[in-house]
Amino acid sequence: MKTFCGSFVLLLISALSLTADVKFTSQPHEISVEIDDKPFTVLYLAPDGNKPYLYPLRTATGAVVTRPLVQEKVAGETKDHPHHRGMFFSFGDVNGVNFWATEPTSTATNNGKMVLKKVIETKGGRKTGTIQAVFDGLDPQGKAIMTESRTWIFYSEPQLRVIDFEIEITALEKLKFGDTKEGTFGIRLATSISEAKGLGGKMVSAEGAETEKNVWGKRSPWVDYSGPVDGKTVGVAIMDHPSNPRYPTYWHSRAYGLFAANIVGVHDFENDKTKDGSLTLLAGKTLHFYYRVVIHPGDVRAADIAGLYKKFISKK
Fold first, then answer.
1. Cα separation of 91 and 106, whole Å?
2. How far apart are CA 34 and CA 259, in angstroms?
3. pLDDT in tens, 78-109
4. pLDDT digits (tens, 9 = 90+) for 203-229
5. Residues linked to residue 110 through DSSP beta bridges, in sequence order
6. What pLDDT shows up at residue 222?
7. How far apart are CA 47 and CA 282, in angstroms?
8. Cα dist. 315→114, 147, 243, 298 in Å?
9. Do β-strands 279-281 and 258-262 pair in parallel, antiparallel, or remain unpaired?
10. Is residue 115 helix, strand or coil?
11. Which end of the chain is more exposed for a tag (fewer CB within 10 A), N or C?
12. What gap in Å lies between CA 136 and CA 292, rounded to an integer?
């Protein structure tokens, strides 16, 4: 009887895994993500010591909303800012160490590295799937100055692609996150979506402010950036949770396609060099951030981003 029950349970688990809406495939330095049996993205685990990132990001119909990597040398694509890889999180100044622009080809002497310690979990499921991994942040001498626990939760939705991103940064020594616009939670969007391309791309804040002129450097709980991909309007929203430090965040969102939330670039954002947006974290203490990314058809109003934000903040 025990043997029969055990076999039945194994068969049931196998059947559930085959019908799971969110699935992961792990390789030594990357984890592929499928939603509803379609490729969605790949989590690259910083194999070159650069930084972990998700790339590419797709809509539910498969349209790619991120710019091709500069390293891929796509004809006709922009080649600026090669460190803008898909969706990423990094600071431009931690105790003077740069974790933002850390391409292997960089000759800067203050570049840090994010190094994978361990993948804690890759758990698929019927409606959600979770990846959790831990990284060490190394200074230029190879000393770990912080540890980051990162969690990505992927959701299966008929029309949307939704990612929740949580990060806990634990200081291994006293850390100062310097005041710089170069940060922190960002996505490099497809060039066709960007306002600079002139094809109808537009960023819109929760307060209804539009275009880079009225969004960049301003504070808002969410911003949506939409524009054409393959002839159809699609958009990406980044949502800042009220539990985050210094909520609502400032936005480092550019017409050329960088789309980022950043709480520490105050003197640039407010154009006031007397202000200091730096943040200090004592050794042993933890800094926590929680964001949601929604990839959707249509523009900000058609997708009801305001309503989706209310659902997001009601979670916890």
1. 16
2. 24
3. 999 999 999 999 999 999 999 999 998 889 99
4. 999 999 999 999 999 999 999 999 999
5. none
6. 98
7. 29
8. 30, 26, 11, 25
9. unpaired
10. strand
11. N
12. 23
pTM of the model as a whole: 0.93
* Residues 266 and 250: beta-carbon distance below 8 Å: yes
Give the DSSP per-residue string, 137-152: EE-TTS-EEEEEEEEE
Per DSSP, the three-state class of 59 is coil
pLDDT band for 163, please (50, 70, 90 cuts): very high
**Residue 296 is which amino acid?**
H
- What are the structural domains of the chain? 2-313 (2.70.98)
261 forms bridges with which residues in the sheet?
A: 185, 251
**pLDDT tens across 215-267, in order?**
999 999 999 999 999 999 999 999 999 999 999 999 999 999 999 999 999 99
- Closest C-alpha among 22, 36, 37, 105 to residue 69: 105
For residue 41, cis peptide bond before it (omega within 30 degrees of 0): no
Mean pLDDT on 112-126: 96
CB 211 within 8 A of CB 272: no
Please, what sign has the CA dihedral across residues 136, 288, 128, 203? negative
* Structural tokens at position 103: 């391409």
For residue 298, give both structure tokens: 């249509």
Instruction: Give me the residue label for tokens 């999180």.
Output: 89
Give the list of residues 6+ apart from residue 136 with CB closer than 8 angstroms, or none: 114, 115, 117, 144, 146, 147, 148
| Burial per residue of 227-245, b for 16 or more beta-carbon CB atoms within 10 angstroms, e otherwise | bbbeeebbbbbbbbbeebe
How many residues are given for the chain?
316
Per residue in 292-301, pLDDT (tens digit) is 999 999 999 9
Phi-psi region of 46 (alpha: psi -120 to 50; beta: other; left: phi over 0): left
Q: What is the mean pLDDT of residues 143-164?
A: 97
Strands 113-123 and 286-297: unpaired
Alpha-carbon span 52 to 283, nearest angstrom = 24
